[in-house]
Amino acid sequence: MTIMNDETREFVAMHRNEDVRELALKAKRVEGLDLPLALDQIAGWQIARKKLPQWASCEGIVYPPHISMEQCSSQFTAQYKSEIAQTLLAPAATVRARVSDSGESDNQTTKSEPQLSDSAESVMQTAKSAFQLSDSPESDTLVAKRAMVDLTGGFGVDFSYLARGFSQATYVERQRHLCDLAEHNMAALGLDQARIVCGDGVEYLRQMGPVDFIYLDPARRDEHGSRTYAIEDCTPNVFELRDLLLAKSQYTLVKLSPMLDWRKVVADFDGTVREVHIVATGNECKELLLVLGQQVHEEPSAPRVFCVNDNQRIDYDSASYTQDLRIGGKPLPEAKNYLYEPNASIMKAGCFDLVEERFGVTQVGPSSHLFVSATPVADFPGRGFAIEAIGGMNKKDIKRLLNGTKQANIAVRNFPLTAPQLRKKLKLADGGPVYLFGTTMQGCDHVLLRTSKI
Question: Going along 162-210, which residue ranges are E strands?
């Protein structure tokens, strides 16, 4: 790893809020200045202040080239993985998840608190802290006995948050430059318990002793650099390592592509999946996380599924709910006053009958994945709208629905036209306070719903 000299460090501090492309063209060549390194650090910090605000607040962090910053986990998803680990390994009364507005780190696991730079202070005011352990002596004892291994270390963001709840935390990575970067950054973050190992994760797994927790994020690119999604095409192949992982750890957390069908993945792991976590942020699915563990009972049990979209969270027993609407099980209410669209994690989970039961809403039709109710629903995990009018696709209904409207936000669910096609047909500009949904109701009627956001 190239260490920044004084000239490069001063340049980064002076220009960190400026446009990197303009700097590359206009920066004066100063003796001792490593301009490519400086530009990487400026670009990395600019991404981190939004994606990893706690890292951006630490002046000692060294960032990798741009592509690694784009691909690394966000602070939100990394903290959520830490939450999973702590919940699995300790009673709720001993280790608790706490979202804090202070941005402080855990005193149990860091030797010093990163100091806010002036330029990062406003960002950090909205940053969320990672897990904070309780102050009880029992908590100290539990943490002192815990060990974890990250077999696919990478840039080390996930590792840095997972490690905070363990007294022994091992990072394994094949690429030497990433190991050097991790060793520097973990020290800058005050993670004294971090141990950096440069080597093959699979080989390390085979020779290591048992630990409490293992984390893997298999590489989803083949030898030609093309993106892959299937587990057997990723490196390492977790299917092949399943039995070894179960033998070497109490729990293993595996990060997979959100493109995968989680039900098929669970079936392929043959009863060893304890939990499924579908993680979204900004209503975009980012990660599919599986918790592997030994069977407690002779008969395989269905995993618990956790749907997460920022601060919206629900969980359920996957054996109790089906993916599809039970047609005829719940007729539409006579008064259709409110429309609800589930967030991305619920859409991915497919737990639509759960949504009906838990929130007292009714799906408008098979495969439509929109819900209606006569009365407003508090804390619905998704977007809510007040229905102003419902009509068909004939000219009379369309004229009544639009009522002179020139622009609208348009979405379609289970509808014969795409959103752009519907917009063109209705001759509407984008935007404004009107939200128009095209969908199919029970009875196979294609309808338009004019709504306003609530």
Answer: 168-173, 194-198
